[in-house]
Structure formats: C-alpha cells, structure tokens
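Good morning C.,

I know you're traveling, so I'll keep this short. The sequence:
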Amino acid sequence: MELHLEKITDGDHATRLVLRHSLPLLYARFVCFRVFLECAAANGGITENHKRRWLLIQVAPVTLLSKSDIFFKVTQLAAGASYEYLQRAIQYECDTVKQLLSQQTTLFCVLDEAQVLPKNLDCFQSEEEDPAQGQPILRQIVHSWRNILPNLIVSGTGMSMREVESFVGSVVAKEGGPVTVTEIGGFDDEDGRRAYLEQYLPPGFLDTSEGKEIAFRVGYWLRGRFVFNAAV
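The tokens, ready to paste straight into the viewer:
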C-alpha cells in the first residue's frame, strides 16, 4: 500500500504539526534533566562526576535505572498534552534548568540519529524554493527547537552532507551559518585507545602483562568506531 502525503503550504500549520509530535521528546528530556540537577544540588552541588552520570543515563537508561527508560515514559505521558501547554511547560523547565546551573554554563542539545527521519516525508512546502519541492521534516524540527535551544547539534550517519547543509543552513543563515563537522568516531591511534581503556580498568593494569595483551587484542580486533569497544 502506498502512502500519499498532501503538501502543507501553511507555514504556521506545518510548524505546529511538527511541534505537536516532537515537543514531547524535548519536554521529557528537560523534565528528567531538571530533576537530575535538583537531586545533584541537594547532595552538595553539581560536579564533573554528575556530568558523566547524566551522559551515561541518556545513553543507557534501561541499564542504569532499574530496567526503565524514564525518557520514553515521560514522553508517553506528555504525548497527550496540547501544543500550547508543551510550549509553556518547556519554557518553564528551560528557565528552571538555567537557574540550577551556573551563569557560565552553556546548554547544548544534540539531535542524534537524525538520519532516521524518512526522507520521503517531505510534506512541508518550502516558501523560498520551488513550490513543487517539499522540505524535510528535519528542517522544521531544527527551526522549532533552535528557538528554545540555540546551541543545537544535529548528528547522524548515512546522511547527505549537501542536503543537511542546505536545509539546516536555511534555518541559521541569519546567524552566520552552521558549522559542519565530519567525524566517524573511531580510535585512530594507540594513545587514544589506551586513554579510553584506562577509564574502565584498574590503575596500572595496562602496564601488566595481562593488560598489555588486552590492549593489543582490543587494538587488533576492535579497531574502528567507539561503539565496538563500548559494546565489549
């Protein structure tokens, strides 16, 4: 069965439609982050260790939080909220998070795995380009989220850099354009691999005969992207 999507020419309606489905994700992340910061502040203040823990919780919430994905649960709860409510709630959570952090702290938001947004869902008609051409949903999400979080990083694999630069650049053109970084995420040298292993092995272990053997095997068999090493 083929799915035919009608072009949406009303810019305001298109934006609201995207926000209606994407804002619960952003709201869930803000709520969880705010609660995390409140707990950290109540236990002596936010430290570098808390930053690492927050990163790990986002990467593996099911493993670290009693086999429960809190981000998914909060997203489900927020899915029934109205567009207007989500806008107000996210702004409130954002303001609260900024109050919990020091004034020198800069918030970054990473929209990862951006390639999963189907390219054929280009049902939003561009006002600047050929009316016959749609614009990817990702452009609408970037445009909407940057109003809340200016420091938005879009990342993914298997993406056309020319297409990404085109539609992301159209969103931030007034601010000098985006910065494009190509990084496959892999260990290219022995020092980098050793520094990674030292984070998870006892101090001095890599200097022992067993440690050297492990380091050699990791370099030989798990060469490449970080995810291969992390999976082991």
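Safe travels,
E.
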